[in-house]
Design goal:
334 residues, mainly alpha, 11 helices, globular
Length: 334
């Protein structure tokens, strides 16, 4: 996987740190993260709220969201391996954006259970490919030396994009109807594709993108090309497996909270503009995460693991707030 091999030991001689010539591509990458904020997760919590407002059966809503999540889980390791071996990372990202857009559009135009579930399965798998391609491009452009800083920069721009898109989607859905949220997603997708075009292919180091470090020069005059690690090598990275389990458990407790909160709002207080409140809740979260992303990327006092522990400790507090306060205002602290 692209996101795991970044921790691997150096395997062969690779390229030097990212040259200054890549600055334009790195800026385009940050802007791409901004526009992808509305694309990467598809309709996100808006979908559950919309389906609830359309009186879709709870069981079907659950199956639809589960299909998207499971497709993403299954696709993630495959997408990471695909991106690691591919020199067409920008093309993979374009394909993923188009598929997420198509799957999201289908969710607004069908009430067929099969098509609804299939649309989110496609969007979930494409979202996993999109995330892997973005990670590969980030590492391939910034190299390992600049990865932490560029990742923080990407995340800050991504959360800023979420603020813009969530406000836009919430207001548009409230004024014109939920299907008009696709107009916001389409505009963000076009912006992301333009940013992909602005990234120069020659700036992407595909060896560095799969975690190969610059090492001591080989004894012979011939350069050594390191092949991508296989899944057998992945099995030996125990630390990565524990971290993956940590992320899985965190996601299990965290990801469904906002959609469930807004489903409750749509079911119990349908006159409270649940789609608009969903947008407000997302904006509050993103306003918090923009400075946090920059803090994590630039902090020299705290190790990355400290931020992971902090996030885990905050999660049960968030769950208690979601359970204890049923009013619309509960969206803000949660």
């Amino acid at each position: 996987m692209t996101t795991t091999t970044t921790l691997a030991m150096p395997m062969a001689a690779s390229s030097p740190p990212a040259p200054a010539a890549t600055a334009g591509s790195l800026t385009a990458l940050a802007w791409m993260a901004f526009f992808l904020a509305d694309v990467r997760d598809g309709l996100g919590p808006f979908l559950a709220t919309y389906l609830q407002s359309q009186r879709v059966e709870q069981s079907l809503i659950g199956l639809t969201l589960t299909a998207g999540g499971l497709a993403a889980v299954v696709m993630t390791p495959l997408a990471g391996a695909w991106v690691d071996r591919s020199a067409a990372k920008r093309l993979l990202l374009v394909v993923a954006v188009v598929l997420v857009l198509a799957g999201s559009a289908c969710a607004f135009t069908t009430r067929s259970p099969v098509l609804l579930i299939a649309s989110q399965a496609v969007a979930g798998a494409a979202g996993a490919l999109l995330a892997a391609a973005l990670a590969g491009l980030t590492l391939g452009l910034a190299r390992r030396e600049g990865l932490r800083r560029q990742t923080g920069r990407n995340e800050a721009w991504s959360h800023a994009g979420n603020i813009v898109s969530a406000l836009g989607a919430g207001v548009v859905a409230h004024l014109f109807g939920a299907p008009w949220m696709m107009a916001v997603m389409l505009a963000m997708s076009v912006g992301a594709l333009l940013c992909v075009a602005a990234i120069r292919a020659q700036d992407v180091d595909h060896a560095a993108a799969r975690g190969v470090d610059a090492a001591e020069p080989p004894a012979s005059s011939q350069p050594v090309q390191a092949a991508p690690e296989g899944f057998g090598d992945l099995l030996r990275h125990k630390a990565l497996w524990f971290f993956a389990l940590t992320c899985a458990l965190f996601h299990l407790g965290n990801a469904a909270m906002l959609p469930l909160l807004n489903q409750r709002l749509a079911a119990t207080q349908p006159d409270a503009a649940p789609l608009l409140w969903t947008g407000v809740a997302i904006v509050v979260a993103q306003l918090t995460m923009v400075p946090v992303a920059l803090w994590v990327s630039r902090s020299r006092r705290w190790d990355l693991s400290a931020f992971v522990y902090l996030a885990i400790l905050i999660l049960p507090v968030r769950g208690l707030l979601a359970w204890a306060f049923p009013s619309v205002w509960a969206n803000l602290p949660v």
